[in-house]
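User: Earlier you gave me the apo prediction for this protein. Now I'd like the version with pyridoxal-5'-phosphate bound, so I can compare the two side by side. Same sequence as before, with the ligand SMILES added.
Assistant: Got it. Here's the input I'm using:
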Amino acid sequence: MMEPLTEEEVMRVLTEARSRDLGYERVFSTMCTRPHPIAVRAHQMFLETNLGDAGLFPGVAEIEARTIRMIGDLLAHPEAVGYISTGGTESNIQGIRAARNASGRRDGNIVVPASAHFSFDKIGDLLHLEVRKAQLDSDLKVDLSSVESQVDDKTVALAGIAGTTEFGQVDPIDGLSKIALDRGIHLHVDAAFGGFVLPFLGRDDLKWDFRVKGVSSITTDPHKMGLSTIPAGGLLFRDLRDVMSLQLDTHYLTVAKQASLTGTRSGAAAAATFAVMALLGRQGFEIIVKGCMDVTRHLVSGAKEIGIEPMIAPVMNVVALQVPKTPEVRSELAKAGWHVSMSREPHRALRIILMPHVTVENVNLFLKDLDRILRGINK
Ligand SMILES: Cc1ncc(COP(=O)(O)O)c(C=O)c1O
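And here is the structure of the complex with pyridoxal-5'-phosphate:
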């Protein structure tokens, strides 16, 4: 181990490292954002709490239970059961693991949209499941006939995405639900991003939550549009039976059984999530989401003015802009200080997330640079 440093020296090292981290202003590629100030306060209050040994921390355990009830309410099923995880990856793993455990199969497969987040590839690896990718239709939603054709007797779960990582599209969850109910298969909805956007859009035509009968579990991330602190994920099940299929004996803790993937887990993230949800309420989130959608529309109309079309009309605050030579444009943008990402082939585009930290002023500056770069590239 290194020789001890003074407190000032430690802080100097940390301050220097922190100064190299990017501020969020010009980061248009992330689904994270600055946490709400009340989340930061709550996080600090509960820093040393461990929900993995909840008997020692009944206060924060109660806060987590209240948070799950609030999220359940948002997803149209206040009796839903689950926990605050570390994020979308853990929630997806656990949603599918519950399905696999309940099926009793160890040689199964799952059918997910081609647009699924790469956490589903981790799931295949970890849980020894074949991951079958169903094709997308021209709106970049999963094609139901492609799903049907891939399902067989070994399918332990279907997944649909409510807010795809690259396009912000919502899969036909009611169609997936019909397939799941017909076959008696678990349907997991990955709303890691959409879970804190869709309920506030006022779009009753989009059916994706527990109102859809076949939906068994939902991932929704407070550390994305929920404005909580990292690491805060949400995993909710319709039935307690699924949580029970995840439980293992703990032997030495204050709780006899544990259903979470991680052992020690942060009470701070649950407290931060509770704090933001309790403070903002539905109305507060509606205002934030409206702000993001206004900036999204501003970006899309500005892009159209310089001759660039989005892949789909934005459903939420995710935009994929069709530009020529996308990787080149992306690296030229990075030279100008803008961080955007790209969607995968065969739907390559500039991927932009209009998080609450993205302002109209910065979108205008971004569009100016994008226009200049495209003119250079087209020469
Ligand atoms: C739809 C979707 N699911 C899952 C994840 C993974 O979430 P996390 O990075 O919190 O593990 C993401 C991340 O962007 C996502 O967009």
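For your comparison, keep in mind: The pocket of pyridoxal-5'-phosphate is lined by residues 31, 87-89, 92, 117, 119, 161, 165, 190, 192-193, 221, 233 (CB under 6 Å).
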